[in-house]
Amino acid sequence: MRILFVHQNFPGQYVHIVQRLAQQGQHQIVALGINALDANRPLPEELQYFRYPLERGNTKGIHPLVMETETKIIRAEGCARAAEQLKAKGFTPDLICAHPGWGEALFLKAIWPDSPLLCYEEFFYRAHGFDSNFDPEFDRDWSWQEQARLNMKNAYLHLTLEQADWHVSPTHFQASSFPEHWQRRISVIHDGVDTRRAAPVANPRPLTLPDGTVLEKGQSIITFVNRSLEPYRGCHTFLRAIPDLQRQSPDARIVIVGETKGVSYGSPCPDGEWKDQFLAEIEGHYDPSGVHFAGTLPYEQFLLLLQLSACHVYLTYPFVLSWSLLEAMACGCAVVGSDTAPVREVIRHGINGLLVDFFSPADLASAVSELLRDRDRAASFGAEARRTVERSYDLDVCVQRQLALIDLVASGSINA
């Protein structure tokens, strides 16, 4: 089979699928993307990767509501030109697998109208019930302009949904964000967690943090991970919980992983950085020596930190679920998570973790401290969390399901 993968930062979510397809030894695998390949992410030699340039930037003075759409059109144009060149060389894919999040998939059907298109769908923005209007502290007064902004944010997705032959989404919650009539055409299959690498270790070695602090098994280590520290992932609730955490668990080592500058999803802090704003709120009420900002850790060190963790905290708006939660569960962490829809999909309160009100630092501190005191209960939660990932999110299981879906879409069976 000839398969084309499209992702602006290839391989992205396709890394394991591409590796398994190459192992089968019977496919021509071609990929299109903007960025150079990451040398730290091994890809099969058989893969043919082509980068496409963007020939222009945004129009000066363009209407703000149109800017995002124009950006996606510019990317789609660059991708389509590269696809046209591939077609001129005689390449016609039996299947196109595309992540449409940056617009690249918009014109591929114009190049190859008979090639089935399978799109990876992450999220569809809604005015109510999901991330928008969720956090009263930061949501602005809702207006028709805000509704218009979300409508335009989804505009390219409507076109993609119409053109694609089928869709795949990593979680049921994420799939539920899409209009109901499209949900029937979305298969829910997670990308998968490598449970051999992300696994409990009885006696993990010590870890030295960038600030020189040495962490060892048996310490009261609390872990919190954000790609970038921001309210979307509950950094305000977590940082505000630190004084109570330290009062209830004075020996705790609080380790925060992630970028402390900028944001990944939400709005930037209007005055400096979110980390500094919330730490200023608790200044004088906590011991900074017990709080460690580790920045971004290499993956093996990140896993080691999770293996050392006594309690892992994961908070999120009703938004895309982070891989870090499932990796923590796979490592056998006792998890305290926010009682929000994406977390409820994987954490069952009192069975494989604890759920608390997203907005309550006091409830968060109490739940974490409870698990630091009751190590038997924490161990029980961690073991069940590991079993949850093994049952439903193991990499081998998920990739096999992804490959089966690829066969169905390529053959036209699922869309018959």
Task: Explain what you see.
InterPro entries: Glyco_trans_1 (IPR001296), Glyco_trans_4 (IPR022623). Keywords: Transferase. This is Glycosyltransferase. The chain is built from 15 helices and 15 strands. It has 416 residues and is α/β, with parallel strands linked by helices. It folds into 2 domains: 2-192 and 395-411, Glycogen Phosphorylase B (Rossmann fold), CATH 3.40.50.2000; 207-392, Rossmann fold. The chain has a 7-stranded parallel β-sheet, sandwiched between helices. The model has no long low-confidence stretch (mean pLDDT 95).
Write the layout of secondary structure elements.
Layout: E1 2-6, H1 15-24, E2 28-33, E3 48-51, H2 64-88, E4 95-98, H3 108-111, E5 117-120, H4 144-153, H5 155-163, E6 166-169, H6 172-176, H7 180-183, E7 186-188, E8 207-208, E9 214-215, E10 221-228, H8 235-248, E11 253-259, H9 274-282, E12 291-295, H10 299-308, E13 311-314, H11 323-330, E14 335-338, H12 341-344, E15 354-356, H13 361-373, H14 375-392, H15 395-411
Helix pairs in contact: 1-15, 2-4, 8-9, 8-13, 11-14
Radius of gyration: 22 Å
Strand order of the largest sheet: 3-2-1-4-5-6-7
CATH uppermost class of the largest domain: Alpha Beta
Quickly count the helices.
15
Shape: globular
Largest sheet: number of strands, sense, barrel closure: 7 strands, parallel
Give the proportion of residues in helices. 25-40%
- What is the succession of H and E elements? EHEEHEHEHHEHHEEEEHEHEHEHEHEHHH
Strand percentage, roughly? 15-25%
Query: What do the pLDDT scores average to?
Result: 95
CATH homologous superfamily assignment of the largest domain: Glycogen Phosphorylase B
Sequence stretches where pLDDT stays below 50 over 5 or more residues: none
Please give the CATH architecture of the largest domain.
3-Layer(aba) Sandwich
Distance between the termini: 20 Å
Number of domains: 2
GO molecular function: glycosyltransferase activity
Protein name: Glycosyltransferase
InterPro entries: Glyco_trans_1, Glyco_trans_4
Organism: Parasynechococcus marenigrum (strain WH8102)
